[in-house]
Amino acid sequence: MRPYHAVRPLLFRLDPERAHHLAVGATATLESLLRLARWNPQPTTDPRLQQHICGIEFPNPIGLAAGFDKDARAPHAWPLFGFGFAELGTITRHPQPGNPRPRLFRLPADRALVNRLGFNNRGADAAAARLATTLHRKRPRIPLGINLGKSKITALADAPEDYRYSLGKLFAHADYVTINVSSPNTPGLRDLQAEGELARLIQVTREACLQLAHTHDCAPRPLFVKVAPDLDDDALSRLVEVVHANEATGLIATNTTIARTGLRSACDEAGGLSGAPLRARATEVVRLLRRRAGAAMPIIGVGGVFTAEDAYEKIRAGADLVQIYSAMVYEGPFLAGRIARDLACLLERDGYASVARAVGVDA
Known about the structure:
Blueprint: H1 3-11, H2 16-37, E1 51-53, E2 56-58, E3 62-64, E4 85-92, E5 104-107, E6 112-115, H3 124-134, E7 144-149, H4 159-170, E8 176-180, H5 195-216, E9 223-227, H6 233-245, E10 250-253, E11 272-275, H7 279-293, E12 299-302, H8 308-317, E13 321-324, H9 326-331, H10 335-349, H11 355-358
Parallel strand pairs: 3-4, 3-13, 4-7, 7-8, 8-9, 9-10, 10-12, 12-13
Antiparallel strand pairs: 1-2, 5-6, 6-11
Helix pairs in contact: 3-4, 4-5, 5-6, 6-7, 7-8, 8-10
């Protein structure tokens, strides 16, 4: 039995959100200790796992999904757990408390979570100030993504300005930026996936990105769009066309789902479902997006990844990179490192010299 499995029953006696805050607090404390010790840990890596995507070096393809480190509290700590990259946020322009509690629920029989947190975070200004301090002397040895969302108080028509403001505050700290238009927990947010709304949002954000790159005398940050698993295949195909036409860089598939099919647990709580039940649909969406987008567009796969085999499935379906979050609740904080090491063995078994060679072979 792994050490985490011995303590998991104790953690599961706590309210899920309280357990989450304890985990985030412990990771933030670790961040402070690393800074005091002036130690910048290496992530799990292997020559077969390394990739160069959008001008960024990824030491391995296993990343932290947005939603865990909402306020960007521990950028240097994630490599210690084996992660090859980390996506911080979701961060909104305005500080917001999120939805009323309780708003996070475990479904142990399904190895799943339901959340309706509602982008609870301290806002773009606070996140930018924190990252300016923590990244001032040394960046972590993994790429950092910044996931941006719409504030609840912002009208849909004003959403592009919300994202533009947050991007302006956080651009300098990001290796890539994600436009989150697919959480089910902010009213109206998923309407931004409609063709006209998404085109306008990408145009405004990309223009801001180009202007900021000129101001900072650097390359523009890659711009990803995170999509919902609940869109049908035609809607996903149209979304790819909008992303192509407006020159966003890539896609993240997928966010949480509002579907409840196939659950063993009785669950009538509203919110987004994540974890093992999402695996098959998320992989299906990755495969469809790869077929529609072609080989060149970067895709990050997320949803139901608990093992190296799960990650490999998404990579073979077309994901260049893979993210995890809910699985850590059930398998512990060092899961990313185990997946990365086991993934290298799977690549060796199948005769792939690098993970890039396996991307999309089943698509």
